[in-house]
């Protein structure tokens, strides 16, 4: 049996081109700082989103290049990572866009939303710091859209679809809240209930379309009667309406009712 020759392991420098290719293709920003805060690596993603080439920034102090970062959370994170040798992360909620980075090729307008992490490491006896910057604009935008949709649905669930004033659910929540507040503060609270006389006969005679128009007109007039932001006019059900009047005594409530 003839033994097959074993290929020698590749030389350490044979993957240099591959590493450079990976850095160029990475879909996030990668930069490396030395112990003095000077930029020793700056990948293509950062160049595309900042308008600054690697040749332009090589050897520059990061915080001289971007003075607005000095004294901010990022500088603190870099210093802490280098001293403690522990990774640091910037909260996207508190640090939305620390770097002046923009959609590729624009270099102006609204900055991309960013997630930034700082990782210290050593190479031989030298200390370095890797900073990763991810564009989270799409994720943040989607979250905002979902929150907006949720708020819109919540608002719709509190509004009567026909008249546009508060519905029974909104009324129940508001009444419970104001009752507890009145008990806590020992303050007055009044409740008005109103219905439309002979509405069924009117609706049967003139039809549902005219009946709906009647309900809408009455609701608008009822809501317009309440001047204070804390007052709430609601459709209680059918042709019945209700109003919650915080800090209102019997005499004031009677005036509203008249």
TrEMBL record:
Domain GGDEF: 187-258
Residues in PAS domain copies: 30-85
GO cellular component, one term: plasma membrane
EC supergroup of this enzyme: transferase
One Pfam family this sequence matches: PAS_4
E.C. number: 2.7.7.65
Catalysed transformations (reactions): 2 GTP = 3',3'-c-di-GMP + 2 diphosphate
GO BP annotation list: cell adhesion involved in single-species biofilm formation; negative regulation of bacterial-type flagellum-dependent cell motility
PROSITE patterns cross-referenced by the UniProt entry: GGDEF, PAS
Classification via SMART domains: GGDEF (SM00267), PAS (SM00091)
GO MF annotation: an example: diguanylate cyclase activity
InterPro entries membership: Diguanylate_Cyclase, GGDEF_dom, Nucleotide_cyclase, PAS, PAS-like_dom_sf, PAS_4, Rev_trsase/Diguanyl_cyclase
Name of this chain's protein: diguanylate cyclase
Lineage summary: Bacteria, Pseudomonadati, Pseudomonadota, Betaproteobacteria, Burkholderiales
